[in-house]
């Protein structure tokens, strides 16, 4: 049996959408460029396929097929374009979540973002608003982007949690800031490492449910940094037995994702 899902990544050109996709997946999925010309000038689809083995011989395996849509910059989109693109994607398979990217100082029209959020929330699609390249442009511009995100999301739900630099708005949305790749300013002697990706992934993991959560776990299965760094949070979230985890670490200590995901699937079946 095959279950198909969609993840939509939106934002203006050159804000790091493709770089973020690669950071989330833990491997190169989308083409990136360091030039001023966007490499994603048309809607592109990257498909990830993962197989979930049945819990026993009597249970058949399930294949999860996740399509990640890397959209062109939406600065030229009209409201009709937003509805048209999202309707097409939603009809193709089950929408998993929408990730919107804006970097400090980037061009963004709030009315377009509002159309996207409104379309998603009305269609029960989880929204993650991400300030990418968080150190590029300074803290004032970064905070301006985050304040705009908060203003928009608060129209749909009050903020319910502010944890690990991630703000949650019920079960409908979150916003945060990330640094997907190393940021370096030689003139000022500044060097910042990758930051905020694991917290973003964990935030979406906490927010999705049932099959959407399962598909999300298989989307990020190759991101070993996430599974290792956020292991304790995942174990607590899904009430996984600590002795089982310790035994695995002592005997194996590798490929934490392939160990934890089957346990998460069992936890989902018990809900």
TrEMBL record:
SUPFAM superfamilies, sorted: P-loop containing nucleoside triphosphate hydrolases (SSF52540)
Entry's Gene Ontology molecular function annotations: GTP binding
Residue stretches making up the G domain: 7-89
Name the UniProt record assigns to this protein: G domain-containing protein
Organism: Rotaria magnacalcarata
Origin organism lineage: Eukaryota, Metazoa, Spiralia, Gnathifera, Rotifera
């Amino acid at each position: 049996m095959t279950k198909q899902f969609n993840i939509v990544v939106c934002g203006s050109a050159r804000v790091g959408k493709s770089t973020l996709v690669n950071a989330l997946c833990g491997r190169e999925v989308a083409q990136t460029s360091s030039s001023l010309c966007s490499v994603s000038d048309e809607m592109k689809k990257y498909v990830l396929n993962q197989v979930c083995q049945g819990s026993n011989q009597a249970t058949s395996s399930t294949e999860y097929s996740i399509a990640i849509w890397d959209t062109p910059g939406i600065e030229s989109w009209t409201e009709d374009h937003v509805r048209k693109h999202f309707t097409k994607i939603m009809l193709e398979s089950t929408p998993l979540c929408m990730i919107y990217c804006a970097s400090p100082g980037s061009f963004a029209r709030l009315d377009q973002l509002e159309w996207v959020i409104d379309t998603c929330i009305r269609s029960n699609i989880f929204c993650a608003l991400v300030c990418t390249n968080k150190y590029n442009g300074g803290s004032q511009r970064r905070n301006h982007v985050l304040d705009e995100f908060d203003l928009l999301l608060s129209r749909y739900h009050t903020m319910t949690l502010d944890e690990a630099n991630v703000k949650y708005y019920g079960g409908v949305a979150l916003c945060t800031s990330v640094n997907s790749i190393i940021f370096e300013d030689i003139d000022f002697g500044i060097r910042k490492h990758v930051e905020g990706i694991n917290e973003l992934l964990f935030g979406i993991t906490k927010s999705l449910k049932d099959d959407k959560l399962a598909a999300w776990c298989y989307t990020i299965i190759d991101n070993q940094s996430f599974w290792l760094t956020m292991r304790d949070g995942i174990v607590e979230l899904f009430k996984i037995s600590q002795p089982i985890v310790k035994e695995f670490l002592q005997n194996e200590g590798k490929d934490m994702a392939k160990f934890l995901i089957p346990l998460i699937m069992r936890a989902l079946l018990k809900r």
